[in-house]
Amino acid sequence: MDGRTLQEVAALAAAAMPGVSLTHPFGPEHDVYKVAGRIFLMTTEVTGEPLATMKCEPEHALALRQEFPSVRAGYHMNKRHWISVAAGAGITQELVDELVRNAYELVVEALPRDRRP
């Protein structure tokens, strides 16, 4: 999967979740996906490389960075709780779908019950 496809897969997965909004608070080149006003996914290009940056549990983030060379600490985000994913060996549609779903669930679980979609 190339970088553009990775971003498209992430965007489609995010859009399928309840209560998600697409915003551009950092400019038109950054697609920012939020649930109840909280970011769980961003897509953009860094030095010409399409990336998807998403929230991730610290232990899972570490394991993913060790397993996949194209998974790095989150670009311009908390390096412990965010990952940036680029196209690369082993990065599949299923993996991207799972990572986006996990990012969404992490944010929703932290919301007060009355704000959850």
From TrEMBL:
Protein name: Cytoplasmic protein
Entries under InterPro entries matching the protein: YjbR, YjbR-like_sf, YjbR/MT2646/Rv2570-like
Origin: domain of life: Bacteria
Annotated transmembrane regions: none
SUPFAM superfamilies registered for this protein in UniProt: YjbR-like
